[in-house]
Write a structure and sequence with these properties.
Distance between the termini: 61 Å
Strand content: 5-15%
Number of strands: 3
CATH topology: Arc Repressor Mutant, subunit A
Helix content: over 70%
CATH superfamily: Winged helix-like DNA-binding domain superfamily/Winged helix DNA-binding domain
CATH architecture: Orthogonal Bundle
Length: 173
C-alpha cells in the first residue's frame, strides 16, 4: 500500500497547533514565585537565564542572543547588577569589551526558577492519563530534535554567530 506525503495544509495546521501549544506551555511555566519575588520582568529573567547558561558573555553577543537593542539590554543589565544577580567583568586583553557573568546569588535564583518550572510541569504531567503521558514521552525525542533543527535555522540566519561563539570561548575573562 502506497501512502502519500501529508499535504501542505496538514503540515501548516500541525505546525500552527504545535506553535500555539509550545507558546502556551512556555508562557504558563515562565512566571515563577522566585522570579516575581526578585522583581524580575520577563526580559530580565531571560537575560539572567542566558548569562547563567552561557557563562561570562560579551554584551554584544548577549544582545544578539536575546534580540535586544543596546538601550534595552543596558537597562536590564543595570537592574540585574544592582540586584547582585549579575556582575560586570572586564577583559584584560580588550578593555573596550564589556562582559557580564552571573553572581552566586544569580545562579541560586536561576536554580530556584528552573526548579519551580520543572515542578509545575511535573505536577501537570501527573494529572494526565497514562495514554497522554505515554504520547508525550514518545514525542519528547522528536521535539528535542525539532528544537535542534530550529537552532540550526537561527545559525543559518546569523552565520557569523558561530565564529563569534568559537572566538569568545577562548577569550572569556
Amino acid at each position: 500500500m502506497v501512502t502519500s506525503a501529508p499535504s501542505l495544509d496538514v503540515d501548516v495546521e500541525i505546525a500552527g497547533r504545535l506553535r500555539v501549544a509550545v507558546g502556551r506551555l512556555s508562557r504558563r511555566v515562565r512566571t515563577t514565585t522566585a522570579g516575581s519575588a526578585a522583581g524580575l520582568t520577563p526580559t530580565r529573567t531571560s537575560v539572567l537565564l542566558t548569562v547563567v547558561r552561557q557563562g561570562p558573555i560579551r554584551l554584544s553577543e548577549l544582545a544578539d542572543i536575546e534580540s535586544l537593542n543596546p538601550t534595552m539590554l543596558s537597562r536590564a543589565i543595570s537592574s540585574l547588577v544592582e540586584a547582585d544577580l549579575l556582575a560586570r567583568v572586564s577583559d584584560d586583553g580588550d578593555r573596550r569589551a564589556a562582559w557580564v557573568q552571573a553572581t552566586a546569588r544569580g545562579k541560586r535564583l536561576t536554580e530556584r526558577m528552573r526548579r519551580e518550572r520543572t515542578d509545575a510541569l511535573n505536577h501537570a504531567l501527573q494529572r494526565l492519563s497514562d495514554d497522554q503521558l505515554g504520547q508525550i514521552e514518545l514525542a519528547v525525542p522528536a521535539l528535542e530534535h525539532l528544537a535542534e533543527l530550529l537552532k540550526d535555522r537561527h545559525s543559518d540566519m546569523h552565520p557569523d554567530m558561530n565564529d563569534v561563539n568559537d572566538v569568545n570561548k577562548d577569550r572569556r575573562p
